[in-house]
Amino acid sequence: xxxxxxxxxxxxxxxxxxxxxxxxxxxxxxxxxxxxxxxxxxxxxxxxxxxxxxxxxxxxxxxxxxxxxxxxxxxxxxxxxxxxxxxxxxxxxxxxxxxxxxxxxxxxxxxxxxxxxxxxxxxxxxxxxxxxxxxxxxxxxxxxxxxxxxxxxxxxxxxxxxxxxxxxxxxxxxxxxxxxxxxxxxxxxxxxxxxxxxxxxxxxxxxxxxxxxxxxxxxxxxxxxxxxxxxxxxxxxxxxxxxxxxxxxxxxxxxxxxxxxxxxxxxxxxxxxxxxxxxxxxxxxxxxxxxxxxxxxxxxxxxxxxxxxxxxxxxxxxxxxxxxxxxxxxxxxxxxxxxxxxxxxxxxxxxxxxxxxxxxxx
Length: 362
Hints:
Elements lengths: L2 H33 L2 E3 L1 E2 L2 E17 L2 E5 L5 E6 L6 E2 L4 E5 L2 H33 L8 H33 L2 E3 L4 E6 L6 E2 L4 E7 L3 E8 L11 E5 L5 E9 L9 E7 L11 E17 L4 E3 L2 E7 L5 E12 L2 E6 L7 E2 L12 E3 L5
């Protein structure tokens, strides 16, 4: 065999060996790439009936508050019967003021009325006797008139003393502080042993336990909102409450361009006065193409979803989102209703990457 033939044969043998050695490594690399494909689950957009809503936000406040003040002054608080959070009924006793001095004045006035009654009885007897002898000459005309005037004076004096007695009775009733309406005690400044002045606020009451949402809406949405519409409120802890528009403010704030909507809440709500909440006023009900919120991928200030095509490739699609309810979001544009959308995990994907579909779009 010539040297040239020997070299060629050796080269072919080495090349063949090289191919034989490289083939298992290449196959292993291909299998590794295949096994590293992300397994995903897909969903199709679902058409749901959602109410269009006007966004709003504002504070939860009492529907009406009632201030319960001391109507008389100079008396000491002897009993405090309720505290903040107490549910009370109209006329219920909330606190007592000292009654000793008032009772003493009342008894004194009762004695004054008794004396005035006796004086009137004597004056009436004298006046009746004088009337009987009128014209007989037994008494002069002047004496008869004096008896009649004394009777009238006694009647006026009795009426005055009775009025004073009624005043003392009213003062006695004012030593018992009562609820002016059904409701919930929201504040208490009454302190046992304190001497109060007339007009001092002792309690504050949320009338009928009614709390409302005073929400601000943009002026451009004001014409769409009217009394009777339903509203939804999202509390800071994630709880949702349904309400109804009670009143729409007739004015718009010239500084903010917003107006206040008064939304009444159900009595059995769990909201608390002073909370700030967001929500919306529900308008007409329309169809919405929706996806789970987990399907959204937020990048560079834009919203995307990933779909899977027939070649098991993930495709990133820019979408416009609209309303949100619970864990779903409305897709306004950019997506067809028949698309197979990756349900979650889009943040770990890139455009064009191969994926394994767990549920084949179902």
